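Can anyone check this?
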Amino acid sequence: MMRPSDRIPTPALATLWRHIAWLVVGVTLVFGPWAVRPADASRQQKGSTLAPAQPPSEAEPRQTIIAALEAACSQNAQEFSRYLLADSQRSFSALPEDQQKTLLKRFSLTSLPGHAQPFLDTKGQTVVRCSTPAETVLYRLDTPQVDHNVAFLPVTVSGGEKTNFGMVRQPGGWRLFSLGLLVINVPALVEQWEEAALQANERTAIADLVFIEQAIKSYHESFGRWPDSLEQLGPAPPNDVSPERAQLLSDRLASGTTDGYRFRYLVVTGTNGQIEGFELGAVPETYGKTGRRSFFLDAQGKLHAADKDGAPATDDDPLYTPQPEPSSQ
């Protein structure tokens, strides 16, 4: 009954790298969508280690990209800003710390701070491996195309998608100014990411409600009664599954709070005092930031959803109507 995401105690890796941007001389720095598959990355061969990246003033374009990836992987905002143009540095530095980290996570395609290691693969191609406790991402750097003070360097991520980093040479060295063709400014970028994260939390809450519903039904089939709490559905000691620990939910879901939502389980008692079923609810842990809509799964299995300003939804609220997920393009 366990989902893969519940068997692995790490956050799901973002599958797209998109819309990373900083202002540059009236034009904002941009970053486009990249896909990544950590499973592919784990199969790559380890090669010989390259020399550490030099400061921008001494670096060729490829070394600048390596250094920027190293800083993003470790979520070192101060170091990362060294590889941006002056206007971009000011825009990036003005962001709150949590938004800077969000940008670096999107840039590195990782959820946790890690360590980046450049090396040469068996074909002699420069590769940067970003490893964290949750995931591993590889970036393969091709030969930069340099024309006077402008350079473009193709980089392929683990999933196979390729994007050109754009750089410009300044007195202090090479600086990043673009990635891809989409143009967007930093404040708008952060706002879009926060909205996207909020909507993703809502979709996850719905999926979790359905999964908890199935786990409760499996519990009832296995033990002939309804659980008293979600905690009883959690992981069990080895070879010791019991009504108190049924091994049907992960620790996260059994705790009742995960992915920005709090979950409530309530048994429904009939007029004769017998339990006839159950209800499930989910409310945003922080209204407006981790979610807006509250959800309610009634005893008939119908899902209701409404923006309740953080209050619980009820069966009086409208039935949930699935909406198409936002395009990744």
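Reply from J.R.: I decoded it. The chain has a mean pLDDT of 79.
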